[in-house]
Amino acid sequence: MAEGLSFAHLRIDRHGAPMLSLDARVAPGEVLTVMGPSGSGKSTLLSAIIGTLAPGFTLSGQITLDGTEITLLPPERRRVGILFQDELLFPHLSVGGNLGFGLPPRLRGKARRARIDAALRDIGLEGFAARDPATLSGGQKARVALMRMLLAEPRALLLDEPFSRLDAARRDQIRSLVFERARAQGLPVLLVTHDPEDAEAAGGRVITLG
Amino acid sequence: MALSLTRAAPALTLLALLGPVAAGLAGTLAPALGLMPALGGTGLSLDPFRELFDWPGLPRAVILSLFTGLAATLISLTLTLLICAGWQGTQAFAALERVLSPLLSVPHAAAAFGLAFLIAPSGWVARLIALPLGWERPPDLLILQDPFGLSLIAGLVVKEMPFLLLMSLAALPALRPAQSVATAQALGYGRVTAWAKVLLPRLYAQIRLPVYAVLAFSISVVDVAMILGPGTPPPLAVQVLKWMNDPDLALRFRASAGALMLLALTVGALLLWRGGEIATARLSARWLVAGGRGHGERVLRGLGLGLGALSAAAVLLGLVGLAVWSFAGLWRFPELLPQGWTLRSWMRHGPELLALFGRTLLIAAAVSGIAMALTTACLEAEQRHGLRPGARALWLLYLPLLVPQIAFLPGLQIAALLTGLDGTLGAVIAVHVVFVLPYAFLSLSDPYRALDPRFAAVSHALGRGPGATFWRLRLPMLLRPWLAAAAVSAAVSVGQYLPTLLIGGGRVPTLTTEALALASGGDRRVIGVTALAQTAAAFLPFGLALLIPALAWRNRRGMRHG
C-alpha cells in the first residue's frame, strides 16, 4: 500500500458549488506546498483533512494516510498533526502541561515527566516545564507548539501559514527546524502559504489553487 | 452515551423552559373559564371574567400597570442609550460600568427597600432638607406608594437600566463602535448624534428582546410593586396575587381571569411598543441622512452621566441606608444618623436569618447547577454537532421572560397541588430553573462561541476526543465566564419572589419571601437586616466567581482576561 498522504478525486463543494478539487500524493518526508489567494479554499482543504469541515461544505473522494482511508474517521483518530499561524498554546496549562497534553497516555509518572523534559531540552527550552506559556517569546512558543504536535506521534503534518507571524530572523530558524524534524520522522507535509519564500524553503512541489 | 446526551440537550432544555410555561398557562386558563372541579367549577362559564369586570378597582389597576410598565421601560431605555451615546469608550463610562455591573445582582426587593428608605417622608432625602429648614416632623406627603406609581417607576428604572446597559455593552463590540463613531465624527457629527445615527439603529436590533423582557417584567412586577407601588388599588399583578392568597378560595376564579387579563395587557403593550418602534424608524429614516450634525450635545451628555450616576447612587445609598437601619438604635427625625448603634436587630433575627440564608443559597446552588448543566450541554452540542439555534429559538429562550410570571404561575401552582409537589424544595427549584435558564444561556453563549475553534482542532489533531477536549480544554479555559454565568444564575434565583411563594406554598420560605412579608409591617430595622442578608446571598456567588479563577490562574497571564 502507498505510504504517505494521498488524495484521490478529492472534491469540496460549498453549498453545492464546486470549491476545489485535488488529486495528489505526498510521500513520507516530502513537502507539498499549496498556494493561492485568500478565499481559494486553502484553509478549507486543511479542515477537510483534519476532519473539522464546517457545515455547508461537502466532501467527496478519499483521503488516505499510510494506506488507511481516514476520510470518515473522527478528527482525533486521524493522526494528522497541524500547526496554525498562531501557536495556540493552551493558556491554562504550563509549558510542560501543554507538551503533556500531546503525549499519548501510555507513558506514565516519572517516565512521562522525563519524556517532557527531554523534549524541552531538544528544543533548547530546558527547565521551562513549569513556565506560563504567556511569558514565552514568539520563537519559543512556536517551538513548544511544534514539539507538542510531534509528541502526539502524528503520521502526517499540516502547516497553515505557521511562519507568517514570526519576524524575519526567527522565521528562517523555525522553518528549517520544522522541515528538518518532519523529514527526520518521515512525515508527509502539506504546507499552505501565500509566501513564495516558504514554498522555496520547502523545496517540494507547488500546487496553486483558485 | 455522552454523545447522545449532548444531542438531546437542546430538546431537553426547551422542554424545561416551555413545558412549565405551557402547563401553567393552561392551568390558568381553565379556572378563568370556570373550570376547577376541586372548587366546584365544572362547567364552562364567563363568570370569572364577569366578576373581574365588576371589581371597581379594575380600570385604575389596569391603567397603573400599563403606565408604570411603559414609563419605566421608556425611561430605562432612554437613559441607557444616552449614557452609551455620550460616554461609551471614555473613562467615565468605564467607571459607571464598574459601578453598575454589581448593581445588577442586587435583588429587586432589596433595591426597592433601599430606595424606599431614601425617598420616604422620613428618609435621608427628607432629612437633608428638613435639617436646614428646621422641620421637626416628616412632611405629610405620600411619596412612597404614591397613587401615580412614580416611586414604583423609579424603583424599576434603577434596576432595569443597568440590565439594558449591560445587554448593550455585550452587543456593542460586534458593531465596532469606535470606528463607526470616529468615521461619523470625522464627517463633522457631534458625538451623541454620531452614535445615534450610525450605531443606535443597529444596536437596537440587538437589544430588542431584552427591552421587551423589561417591558413585560415592569408591567407584571409584584415584589417591587408591593414595596413601592400604590395600595388601593394596586397594579393588577399585585391584586391578582391578593386574590390568589385570599382564604376565600372562590376568589381563585377571579384571580385566574385577572392573570389572563394581565397577559393580554402585556401582549397589548408589546404590540404598542412594536408600533412605536416602526413609527420611530419611519420618522427617523429621513433624519438619519438629512445631514444634521447635532446640537445640544453637551446637555445630552451631562444629562446621561448625571442621571446614570443618580440611578447608581440611589441603589448604593439605599443599601447603605438598609445597613444603617439594621444597626440603628434610637433614630429621631430629622437627625441624619442614629443617636446610638446596636447589634440588637442582628442578634434577635440572626439565627432565623441564618436558616433562611442557608435555604436560599441551597436553592440557588441547585438551580444554578441545573441551569448551567443544561446550558453547557446545549452549547457543547452546538460545537460538536452544529446544532445552532436560530433566531426563533432565541424567542423561545426569552419566552419565560416575556410571559408575565403571574399569568402562568397560578396554573402551575394548581398543577403542583394536583401532583402533591407543592411546597417541596424540589418543586421550587424546578420552577426557578425556568426563569434562570434564559439568563444562564445569555451569559454563557457569547464567551462559549467566542473561543477560538482552532484550540479544539489542535486538541483533536493531538489525538484527544470531544470528551477530553471539553473537560480539559474548553471548560478550564472558560472557567471565568462559566462561573460568572453560574453566579448570575444564582443571583436570579435568590431574587425570585412569586415562584417561591406560589409553588412553595409558603412552606419554603427564603430571604426574599421573608423580606416581602415584612413590607407591610414597616419595621425598618428588621427590613434592613433581612434585605441586607438577601443582598449578601446574591453577592456571595459573584465573590466566588471572582475569587476562584483569580486563585486557579494566578500563574497564568493568558487567562487573566478570559
Automatic annotation (TrEMBL), chain A:
Stretches assigned to coiled coil: none
Keywords associated with the record: ATP-binding, Nucleotide-binding, Transport
Short name of one Pfam family: ABC_tran
Domain ABC transporter: start-end pairs: 2-210
PROSITE patterns tied to this protein: ABC_TRANSPORTER_2
SMART domains: AAA
Record InterPro entries: AAA+_ATPase (IPR003593), ABC_SmlMolc_Importer (IPR050093), ABC_transporter-like_ATP-bd (IPR003439), P-loop_NTPase (IPR027417)
SUPFAM superfamilies: P-loop containing nucleoside triphosphate hydrolases
Molecular-function annotations in GO: ATP binding; ATP hydrolysis activity
PANTHER family: SPERMIDINE/PUTRESCINE IMPORT ATP-BINDING PROTEIN POTA, SPERMIDINE_PUTRESCINE IMPORT ATP-BINDING PROTEIN POTA
Protein name stated in the entry: Putative thiamine transport system ATP-binding protein
From TrEMBL, chain B:
Transmembrane regions listed in the UniProt entry: 61-87, 108-130, 209-229, 249-273, 303-333, 353-374, 395-418, 424-444, 482-506, 526-553
InterPro entries assigned: MetI-like, MetI-like_sf
Gene Ontology CC, one term: plasma membrane
Subcellular localization(s) per the UniProt record: Cell inner membrane; Cell membrane
Keyword terms, alphabetized: Cell inner membrane, Cell membrane, Membrane, Transmembrane, Transmembrane helix, Transport
Example GO biological process: transmembrane transport
Domain ABC transmembrane type-1: 58-273, 357-548
Keyword Membrane: yes
UniProt-listed Pfam families: BPD_transp_1
Membrane topology: Multi-pass membrane protein
Primary site of residence: membrane
Source domain of life: Bacteria
PANTHER family from the UniProt entry: INNER MEMBRANE ABC TRANSPORTER PERMEASE PROTEIN YDCV
Stated family: Belongs to the binding-protein-dependent transport system permease family.
Protein name: Putative thiamine transport system permease protein
